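Thread: quick sanity check before group meeting

JM: Hey all, I'm pulling together slides for Thursday and realized we never actually wrote out the predicted structure for the chain we discussed last week. Dropping the sequence here so it's in one place. If anyone has concerns about the input, flag it before I start.
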Amino acid sequence: MALPPLIEIVPPVGKVRGQVTVPGSKSITNRALVLAALADGTTLLRGALWSEDTQWMVAALQKLGFAVSVTPDEGEGCNRQIRVEGRGGVVPPGGSLGQPLEIGVGNAGTAARFLAALLCLGRGAYRLHGTERMHERPQAALFDALRQLGYSVDSPNGRLPAVIQGGGRRPGPCRVGMLESSQFASALLLCARAGGWDVAVEGDDPEESPYVAMTTRLIDVFPQPGGEVVIEPDTSGGSYFWAAGSWEPPSGPPEALVSATALELALEPTVQVARWPRSGWQVDERFPEWCARLEQRSLGFARDVLGLGAAELERLRREAGWPDAPRLEISRRRDLGDSIMTAIALAPLLAQRVRFTDLGRLRLQECERVEALRAELTRCGARVVEIGDTLEVFPSDLHGAEIVTYNDHRMAMCFAILGLKVP
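JM (edit): ok, ran it. Output follows.
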């Protein structure tokens, strides 16, 4: 169902309580789709996310000639059960150089990178293309690695659109770095068994290596003969729901909230996410812990709800056993993945400034996310300072605004959650 061009978000009256299920992980779903296509038998993916990115991947596999069927998932409306008939590492042939088989990927980064490697295993020519923004995103390191293996990739500027000439299985070594995206390494690793490739991943970027680790773990446990794979819920998307039930000022008289135990209970999230993953596969499974840490440091509720003056606020902080609250720092390199965007969007609601660091990778995704976050938070009245790949967000009195989403689902969701907090 198409959404209207403008949606008004109105804060609810009173607290919202409940438990929600979260759709499957996009990262795991698209990796599993590639492995299923390369498997020897039929694979059923349960709990697979049905989003724009995964729909592009399914459509591409179907256009290539893989038998892929999609049915509803009774447990979650945004998931599907996807059945893929593997071809044992064989990719159906493409077209000719004069008339290559057209494969679209929209603005789906995982689909673009994973399919580039997969198409090399076929025969004939394929033209891989996407949206204008996708044509701006980096691909050169992946294309160079594929050329090291002997495949022809025609892309004058190292980006899409590109014409790829498949050469089938071509055993050999290649090297790829993670400077711009870990998806380059993951694309090669997913197809390495079928292609006979010996992939060397250069560098150990802690910001991106969790995603490569996810890829290698999935390859290790994936049923090569075919079988059933359950996709775990998406933790970056789940961050929206944890945030919706957090950053809320607790109600009650001051004397009822003086003890540390009482404060901890008062700050317990009112919205819980069912079956929250604890596998270690997704870096954003840490978000609830970071969410609690940020909220426990914030005393904004004392000003807004309890009506305490500065002296009383300081007394409450001392008697509750709370330490002084220096500037907090959260890194996308070591602390969170894409869920850091959720934390950035809600940071103005806290009672202390928060510094978000190592955000450079966000600039290369669906939109220039660092600049977009700063611009839209400023539009809401927040004080945000951008220096290099760092955003420092200060406590701010926010107001409603008309938000530009930049055709980016994470921008839309982050500010939708903020809209639940700001009248």
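AS: nice. The mean pLDDT is 88. Residues 66 and 148 are 27 Å apart (CA to CA).
JM: adding both to the slides.
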